[in-house]
Design a protein that fits this description.
With 223 residues, the protein is α+β, with helices and mostly antiparallel strands. Helix content is 40%, strand content 26%. It is built from seven helices and eight strands. Strands 1, 2, 3, 4, 5, 6, 7 and 8 form an eight-stranded mixed beta sheet that branches. The protein starts with 7 loop residues before the first helix and ends with a helix.
Length: 223
């Protein structure tokens, strides 16, 4: 029996799924990149005036490593869409773990995630020594194969002018992948985000980076 060729409706569903998948990638990965690219770019720009672009890149970027304050961390865990109290910024270091497995388009999970992010970014931005771990899953509906999943680690030490980012267990549509695969998937629809992610490597598998941060007088004085 010959199967009928896919019609306009089938092709429309396929295009719609592709758009949702890439939108989900943009939503989730954009949150990762936002905290690190501006600081890294600024630092690179300062260095490049004296030593050239290639030397600035080697001086600014390096392999991921744990921060020196990891052993001092007391971890504070937060569930889906849970907002931490602002006073938590007084912890030094501040170490938090977030569940972000319900970034779901049709049940309000993505909205709850977005509503929680401002307070999370607020306490992070006030911290001189900060370490965050989170677990991501982005899907259309609960129970669907996720468009993208990963575990993230993000830290900075403003006094020491260092920060690090690592992505592990990265999967796209349930298949093991890496930052390079995300760069390829995002390039047609989110070229600027793809360019930002490419700074963290273009290979499949685990991806990580450390960067130099701009000078912070308050955190340097705090010791």
């Amino acid at each position: 029996m010959v199967r009928p060729a896919s019609g306009p409706r089938t092709r429309h569903r396929a295009r719609t799924r592709a758009r949702f998948r890439n939108a989900a990638l943009g939503l989730a990965l954009g949150a990762v990149v936002a905290a690190f690219v501006p600081g890294a770019s600024a630092s690179a720009a300062q260095s490049s005036g004296a030593s050239g672009a290639s030397k600035a890149a080697s001086a600014t970027f390096g392999p991921f490593s744990e921060p020196s304050f990891t052993s001092e961390c007391v971890w504070h865990h937060f569930g889906e869409g849970e907002q931490p109290p602002l006073w938590m910024w007084v912890y030094d270091p501040l170490c938090v773990a977030y569940e972000k497995r319900d970034v779901t388009i049709d049940n309000g999970g993505a909205l709850r995630f977005l509503l929680a992010e401002p307070s999370r970014f607020a306490i992070a931005g006030l911290s001189c020594r900060y370490y965050q771990r989170d677990h991501w899953s982005v899907q259309m509906s609960s129970g669907d194969v996720p468009y993208v999943t990963w575990d993230g680690q993000y830290w900075w030490d403003k006094g020491a002018r260092r920060a690090g980012l690592r992505v592990t267990h990265f999967r796209i549509d349930g298949q093991p992948a890496g930052i390079g695969d995300a760069v390829t998937a995002l390039r047609p629809h989110f070229p600027e985000l793809a360019d930002a992610l490419a700074k963290f490597g273009e290979e499949s598998g685990e991806s990580g980076v450390s960067v130099t941060l701009p000078f912070s007088l308050p955190c340097s004085l705090a010791g």
